[in-house]
UniProtKB/TrEMBL annotation, chain A:
Keywords: FAD, Flavoprotein, Iron, Metal-binding, Oxidoreductase. Residues 492-506 have a biased composition (Low complexity). Residues 492-519 are annotated as: Disordered. PANTHER family: XANTHINE DEHYDROGENASE (PTHR45444). Residues 1-82 form the 2Fe-2S ferredoxin-type domain. InterPro entries: 2Fe-2S-bd, 2Fe-2S-bd_dom_sf, 2Fe-2S_ferredoxin-like_sf, 2Fe-2S_ferredoxin-type, 2Fe2S_fd_BS, Ald_Oxase/xanthine_DH-like, Beta-grasp_dom_sf, CO_DH_flav_C. Residues 194-372 form the FAD-binding PCMH-type domain. Gene3D superfamilies: 3.10.20.30, 3.30.465.10, [2Fe-2S]-binding domain (1.10.150.120), CO dehydrogenase flavoprotein, C-terminal domain (3.30.390.50), Uridine Diphospho-n-acetylenolpyruvylglucosamine Reductase, domain 2 (3.30.43.10). This is 2Fe-2S iron-sulfur cluster binding domain-containing protein. One of its GO terms (molecular function) is oxidoreductase activity.
From TrEMBL, chain B:
It comes from Cobetia crustatorum. Its cofactor is FAD; Mo-molybdopterin cytosine dinucleotide; [2Fe-2S] cluster; Mo-molybdopterin. One of its GO terms (molecular function) is molybdenum ion binding. It is an enzyme of class 1 (oxidoreductase). Keywords: 2Fe-2S, Iron, Iron-sulfur, Metal-binding, Molybdenum, Oxidoreductase. Its EC number is 1.17.1.4. Residues 804-820 have a biased composition (Low complexity). Residues 40-147 form the Aldehyde oxidase/xanthine dehydrogenase a/b hammerhead domain. This is Xanthine dehydrogenase molybdopterin binding subunit.
Length: 519, 820
């Protein structure tokens, strides 16, 4: 049985086969047809639900990728639960009123998902405001972009949806009332939904020991955390999982602890820590990494996807591994016999092959604390800015020396090889050649040729659906003048603040993002 | 960023005010009739309909080769799979095997030759959708492969066409022409501009995939709920496939979760398969395509290859144009004849071509049969001439806007290459000049040039492009519509018409039409689902014509009812007939209230006056002589213009839309909120087509971009806050007698997005100091933009070498060919 609350009503669901999704349960068993299936791959947002797990704030998720078993103990809010349940003819909630008033639905199929994403945004914004945080229009736009980046609309062109969001956040339609009624009937008697019971083989151990024992006993049983990748096996390749081993209830895997490793202080990040949970730490210590993370998947994916999952699935692209490799992170693997700690860059062996043994799990990742001179640049190139997988991802870490120069380069790329990997030749090149001769303005055929040669020595990428080999090699090479110009611009800005007032904007932007940050 | 218009929210407030000012909401920003249901999740789509007991779920067994003969198809494992109830293949089809909408070529299920990857081979019915889908993957088959053609130019060279080539040729003086005479004219111009371009296709990506639910009735009767833009054709094809008379089949469409042309013909096979299973098993059957299956099975916007040669005078004015458009039609004709025709009809966009020779080739390739998509070939047709406008500008060292303005249709140069006079053509200049002025084009041009001169990596681009789009089905017989209006004895009104609702707000507009004619508030009027048993023999809701055609038919029915009621009232109440009006729910005589609408209806009922009426409309004055390539195929034209600014990272190819100011002509708007919604949505969809939406196939003809993980339609951040500013052109009612002098709005705005592509090219041109126009195929992905920037840098370095060695020949003196 799975016990949860659905729109404030306690709900008891007979355990479905492992891998059954929340969307399947909602539409096929619970008769909640308001939540739509647009893609069943977590890319369109039509199935967006709101979820409150114990001890966490209200978040969105893609119902199509979430295993129904993870509903246990959660409060689930669907579009049917947005309108006030008090009256017999439900009154539209603020978010629904806003969408109607701004003509923000046309065909209406994406609308329930958008309403949920907006309702959660409204509630979290309200919470921030009540804590004294104030957002200007531009900051609100960023919040809106993040909240709705994973909700595709094919009809409206988004302008009215953005307007609905702005007017909602401005309080024009009243206060968010999501949390108020989600606890309404928590204490009432569970309603049993009658569907055939099938023997469940969905394991959710609560202790590390139990997890490791199950892993040893059944090494073939797939591990699942957020499910944002694994569940595609169920929805797209129609694989039936005989059993699943869910790591998300193991406390040790869900924690972020300060610690030390290899003589450095830093943090042990549990493998089941979600991107969302990781965000505040990155925002504080590695803001560039936080910006990158904001472009990983969508809000719905960031709310569910985990660090361990991203590393474990060994994607050649994987947005986190190139970042973590550049930051000299380690991965801690564990089985019943003990643990081992590897440099993350040594963990990946070949396409979708890693050092992980069948009886091992990824326990955590060690992320070193930045030293004072630490600098970072992360460049993700993709066909679409948001909710897209990188065509290539270049992460550059270096240390600023006393006169503003750069040293100790660590560069890692995703999308350039069968695994996320370091770019040793490019590192050597940046160590050797002065940045001044590598900027877009000073670059000549000779220096560009040297960069391209180094890139070619580091990587031999494939052409695929996201980009050609030619584009990958050229675009990766072009990140060198970008990072060189960035450092020189910083130097110039730095010396300018010491000498004269704000002249930094006279530097030409080295990238689109730099331009957008300036303007 | 300067704005043409007030802030977004002010704009919406203004819309709300107009709605409030008019309590009946008859002509104004009335909200979508399903808005509350949309936001509550209670708007039902086919997959949400409750199923009767024992209903079956279907899945399609698809081919895994792109071309070959199907020698054996072993379905034993499929039949034996758990949950499977019924498996049918081509031999089980009782009636017609071919469901081609106009011409044959689309087998419902393949019996012999497989002609694209993902083609339907058989259908499985099971007690759950998952069981059906899993079973569908268990088929064993042997196929003898045949050679695959994926390149339309190769197909054209081999003469492998789905339909014959069509040409339109006309000299600037109106005389008929041929290739020889136009080629001769071309040679007389001082400037020659020629080039090539490839434009990619586009997946519709309606959020609701194709779906149908078939409910068997008594004997041979069948009711099918279909997510279709063309219920009458679905009805026809189901009847033909089942071998029953049309009257046995009823098709109902309440709403679609998006259509965009993708449910004009492509909905029918899905509905036919559901009906076949329902007939075979006697059980309800639902087929809803999973996203990937939908993308493999159904056709898309036609990719095109464009080749153009323009003869231009010293002022940049086009004197002669030779344009060859090769449409990639996929494996069968489907609607490609009309689609490539429409591309040809729009090869001029908004410009007088002078001596013109336009040729349209319909190439056959081994992909799903490409089909209708918002614009229906029109957008593709316009690309070549818009590419040429910039090329001419660079060649002559002029601003592209100057060249575009110089070539607009104008007095004395106002007849298209197919001989239709362009009515209201002065609106083109009006639109462009208003945007030019209010959008501060020249000031921004100067600022952008200054910015670009100092910025080696990030470059800005600006472009102002017009759109002229012909309104009417070019298949003349489709320009008809019917409606059925019932008044019930409580005074409530039910309207039914032949059009379908796919989100475009057609039903809302039809409610407004009925309410206006009957003098009622919109809440008195209800639209019911489109059904073939209410209004028969309807045309697809397509060609932007939904409101034009059905609005007139609905109005016709209402006018008849109104006349009958007023005749009755005049007699019943002994009032002069001419003094009677219906306003705001009341019957008035010379302004004073006689009785309420409800009382009038009651009285008429008691006196045995019929309260039900049908309406009909057929568009007048349209004709096209395909033999001669001339005529008047369009009832009127809709116009628009867009001014776009982009910013491009020339080292990575990343870019962003900074602003889009749009001014669009909808005549007298039926509903400004809905019209603005169509313009915004069309523009962004067009932007997706031209920028991020890239379809890729592997060499075996398998579509690789078969889901939203790899096929990227615009997301919210691609339309930055405040960047999209839409204004309706005011004060210019349609010169044609359309419904309340409004204009069609579904398709024309999509082509406003050409300004994004033109602005990207403008930014790339800045690398060459605006001396060289670079070819930029579409979609202009970051990859294509970056590679084009590299081409520009190469050009510049070669040019500077050239300039150093031949100082005596500054650029732009000698006419030369631009061959990107």
């Amino acid at each position: 049985m799975i016990d949860f609350t659905l729109n404030g009503r306690a709900c008891r669901l007979p355990s479905p086969p492992p891998g059954t999704t929340v969307l399947e349960v909602l539409r096929d068993s619970l008769g909640h047809d308001g939540t739509k299936e647009g893609c069943a791959s977590g890319d369109c947002g039509a199935c967006t639900i709101a979820l409150q797990t114990p001890g966490q704030s209200l978040t969105t998720a893609n119902a199509c990728l979430m295993p129904a078993h993870q509903l246990e103990g959660c409060e689930l809010i669907t579009v049917e639960g947005l309108a006030s349940p008090d009256s017999t003819t439900p009154a539209l909630s603020p978010v629904q009123q806003a969408l109607v008033a701004t003509h923000a639905s046309q065909c209406g199929f994406c609308t329930p998902g958008i309403a949920i994403s907006l309702a959660v945004l409204h509630a979290s914004h309200q919470q921030h405001v009540s804590q004294g945080n104030v957002f200007d229009d531009r900051q609100r736009d960023t919040l809106i972009d993040h909240a709705l980046g994973g909700n595709l609309c094919r009809c409206t062109g988004y302008r009215p949806i953005r307007e609905a969001a702005h007017r909602l956040l401005a309080g024009e339609f009243g206060t968010a009332n999501l949390s108020a009624h989600s606890s309404l009937l928590l204490a009432s008697v569970p309603e049993t939904i009658v569907t055939p019971t099938i023997d469940s083989h969905y394991h959710r151990p609560r202790t590390l020991a139990a997890l490791l024992a199950l892993r040893t006993a059944q090494p073939d049983m797939p591990l699942i955390a957020g499910g944002t990748d694994l569940m595609l096996e169920h929805t797209q390749r129609l694989r039936d999982f005989p059993a699943l081993l869910d790591v998300t209830q193991v406390t040790e895997l869900c924690r972020i602890d300060e610690g030390e490793h290899a003589g450095q202080s830093g943090w042990w990040l549990g493998a089941a820590v979600t991107y969302r949970q990781l965000m505040p730490l990155l925002r504080e210590h590695y803001p560039e990494a936080a910006d990158l993370l904001n472009r990983l998947g969508s809000e719905q994916i960031r709310n569910r996807g985990t660090l361990g999952g991203n590393i474990g699935n060994a994607s050649p692209i994987g947005d986190m591994p190139p970042l973590l490799i550049a930051l000299e992170a380690y991965v801690q693997l564990m089985n019943q016999r003990g643990e081992r700690i590897l440099k993350l860059e040594d963990f990946f062996l070949d396409y979708k092959r890693t050092q992980l043994m069948p009886d091992e799990i990824i326990h955590s990742v060690f992320l070193p604390r930045p030293v004072k001179s630490q600098r970072l640049a992360a460049y993700k190139l993709s066909k679409r800015r948001d909710d897209d997988i990188s065509t290539l991802l270049g992460v550059f870490a270096w240390r600023r020396d006393a006169d503003g120069g750069a040293q100790h380069w660590r560069i890692a790329f995703g999308g350039m090889a069968s695994i996320p990997a370091r770019a040793f030749h490019l590192e050597a090149l940046l160590d050797e050649i002065p940045l001044e001769s590598l900027t877009p303005a000073t670059l000549n055929r000779q220096t560009l040729g040297m960069i391209e040669q180094a890139t070619g020595a580091d990587f031999s990428p494939l052409s695929d659906v996201r980009g050609s080999r030619e584009y990958r090699l050229k675009a990766a090479s072009h990140l060198i003048p970008r990072v060189a110009q960035r450092i020189l611009n910083e130097q110039a800005a730095h010396s300018a603040t010491h000498h004269t007032a704000n002249t930094s904007s006279s530097q030409p932007p080295e990238s689109l993002d730099a331009y957008l940050a300036q303007s | 960023m300067r704005t043409l218009h007030s802030l977004d929210s002010d704009h919406a407030h203004a819309l709300e005010r107009t709605a409030k000012d008019s309590p009946t909401g008859q002509r104004h920003a009335q909200k979508h009739e399903s808005a509350e249901r949309h936001v509550s999740g209670t708007a039902r789509y086919v997959d949400d309909l409750p199923l009767p007991k024992g209903a079956l779920h279907l899945a399609i067994g698809m081919s895994e080769v792109a071309h070959g003969t199907l020698d054996t198809l072993d379905l034993n494992a499929v039949r034996a799979a758990p949950g499977v109830v019924c498996v049918l293949s081509a031999t089980d089809i009782p009636g017609h095997q071919d469901v081609g909408p106009v011409f044959p070529g689309d087998p419902l299920l393949v019996s012999n030759v497989i002609s694209h990857y993902g083609q339907a081979l058989f259908v499985v019915a099971a007690d759950s959708e998952r069981a059906a889908r899993q079973a569908a993957r268990l088929a064993k088959m042997s196929v003898t492969p045949l050679p695959i053609t994926l390149d339309p130019r190769v197909a054209a060279q081999q003469g492998d066409l789905v339909r014959p080539t069509h040409t339109q040729a006309r000299l600037s003086n109106g005389r008929p022409a041929d290739l020889e005479s136009v080629t001769k004219a071309l040679g007389k111009s001082v400037w020659q501009v020629e080039g090539e371009l490839e434009s990619g296709g586009q997946e519709h990506f309606y959020l609701e995939s194709q779906a149908a639910l078939a409910l068997p009735g008594e004997d041979d009767e069948m009711l099918v709920h279909s997510s279709s833009q063309h219920p009458s054709e679905v009805q026809k094809l189901i009847a033909e496939v089942l071998g029953v008379p049309f009257h046995a089949v009823t098709v109902e469409t309440r709403r679609m979760g998006g259509g965009f042309g993708g449910k004009e013909t492509q909905a029918a096979p899905v509905a036919c398969l559901a009906a076949m299973i329902a007939r075979h098993t006697g059980r309800a059957a639902r087929l809803r395509l999973p996203r990937g299956d939908d993308m493999h099975l159904t056709g898309k916007r036609h990719p095109f290859h464009h080749r153009y040669q323009f003869g231009v005078d010293d002022s940049g004015r086009v004197e002669t144009a030779i344009i060859t458009l090769t449409g990639d039609c996929g494996h069968s004709p489907d609607l490609s004849d009309a689609i490539v025709d429409r591309a040809m009809f729009h090869a001029d966009n908004a410009y007088f071509l002078g001596n013109a020779y336009v040729r349209g080739i319909r190439a056959r390739t081994n992909v799903a049969s490409n089909t209708a998509f918002r614009g229906f070939g029109g957008p593709q047709g316009m690309l070549a001439v818009e590419a040429a406008m910039e090329n001419i500008a660079r060649q002559l060292g002029r601003d592209p806007l100057e060249i575009r303005k110089r070539n607009l249709y104008c007095e004395g140069r106002d007849t298209t290459h197919y001989g239709q006079h362009v009515n209201q053509h002065p609106l083109l200049a009006t639109l462009i000049e208003q945007l030019e002025e209010e959008g501060h084009y020249w000031q921004r041009r100067a600022e952008i040039r200054a910015f670009n001169a100092k910025s080696p990596v990030v470059k800005k681009g600006l472009a102002l492009t017009p759109v002229k789009f012909g309104i009417s089905f070019t298949a003349k017989h489709l320009n008809q519509a019917g409606a059925l209006v019932h008044i019930y004895t409580d005074g409530s009104v039910q309207v039914n018409h032949g059009g379908t609702e796919m989100g475009q707000g057609l039903h809302t507009k039809m409610i407004q039409v009925a309410a206006r004619e009957l003098g009622l508030s919109v809440d008195k009027v209800r639209i019911t689902a489109t059904r073939t048993d209410k209004v028969p023999n309807t045309s697809p809701t397509a060609a932007s014509s939904g409101a034009d055609l059905n609005g007139m038919a609905t109005r016709d029915a209402c006018l008849r009812l109104k006349a009958r009621l007023l005749d009755f009232a005049a007699e019943h109440l002994a009032q002069p007939r001419t003094s009677l009006t219906l306003e705001a729910g009341e019957l008035l005589s010379a302004g004073s209230v006689l009785m309420t609408w409800g009382e009038l209806v009651q009285a008429a009922y008691i006196e045995r006056i019929s309260l039900s009426e049908k309406g009909f409309y057929a568009t007048p004055d349209i004709h096209y002589d395909r033999e001669r390539g001339t005529g008047h195929p369009f009832y009127y034209y809709a116009f628009g213009a867009a001014l776009c600014e982009v910013v491009v990272d020339t080292l990575s190819g990343e870019y962003r839309l900074e602003g889009a100011d749009i001014l669009h002509d909808v005549g007298d708007s039926l509903n400004p909120a809905i019209d603005i919604g169509q313009i915004e949505g069309g523009f962004v969809q067009g932007m997706g087509w031209l920028t991020s939406e890239e379809l890729k196939w592997n060499e075996d003809g398998r579509l690789l971009t078969d889901g939203p993980a790899t096929y990227k339609i615009p997301a919210i951040s691609d339309v930055p806050a405040g960047a999209l500013r839409v204004q309706l052109l005011e004060g210019h009612p349609n010169s044609a007698a359309s419904i309340y002098r409004s204009k069609a709005v579904g398709e024309p705005p999509l082509m406003l997005a050409m300004s994004v592509w033109a602005a990207l090219r403008d930014a790339l041109a800045s690398i060459s100091d605006y001396r060289h126009a670079v070819r930029l195929d579409t979609p202009a992905t970051p990859e294509r933009v970056m590679l084009a920037a590299s081409v520009q840098r190469e050009w510049l370095s070669e040019q500077s070498l050239h300039d150093q060695t031949s100082q005596s020949q500054p650029p732009h003196v000698q006419p030369h060919q631009v061959t990107p």
